[in-house]
Backbone:
């Protein structure tokens, strides 16, 4: 019986001890304050994110425009090189074959045609094109002109001293 009473006392003690609620008003106040701070920080973070997203889009547009301008500069350099190569050949005291002159004429004609297209795009539609269309156009035009310039380089290298 003594053991039953002891077990009953221990059982009542454990049940009573586990049901005691600990309430700390300071913790509740701190938790509410942290929740308020977190909410305001989240709102500020969202504003910052939107601002950075807009700035990023503007920078990307400027970057694409700079790429287009760099492509135009390269196209101009390539055209100058082609003209220089043809002048080098024509200024030689050597007779140049008719087939070579036809190849040079074809290359310069193709370059002039592509330069004409670039000029039309610059005067009429540069800003109406999408970034992708503009970049694709300039890269394709640069590639075509580069092929013709390489043709003039190969012929000019034969006539260099």
Residues:
């Amino acid at each position: 019986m003594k053991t039953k009473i002891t077990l009953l006392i221990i059982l009542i003690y454990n049940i009573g001890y586990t049901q005691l609620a600990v309430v700390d008003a300071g913790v509740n106040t701190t938790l509410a304050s942290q929740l308020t701070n977190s909410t305001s920080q989240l709102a500020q973070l969202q504003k910052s994110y939107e601002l950075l997203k807009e700035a990023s889009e503007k920078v990307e547009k400027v970057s694409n425009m700079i790429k287009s301008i760099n492509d135009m500069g390269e196209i101009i350099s390539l055209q100058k090189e082609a003209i220089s190569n043809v002048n080098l050949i024509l200024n030689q005291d050597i007779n140049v074959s008719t087939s070579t002159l036809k190849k040079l004429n074809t290359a310069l004609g193709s370059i002039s045609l592509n330069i004409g297209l670039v000029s039309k795009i610059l005067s009429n539609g540069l800003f109406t094109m999408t970034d992708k269309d503009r970049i694709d156009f300039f890269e394709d035009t640069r590639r075509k002109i580069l092929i013709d310039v390489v043709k003039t380089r190969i012929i000019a290298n034969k006539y260099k001293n």
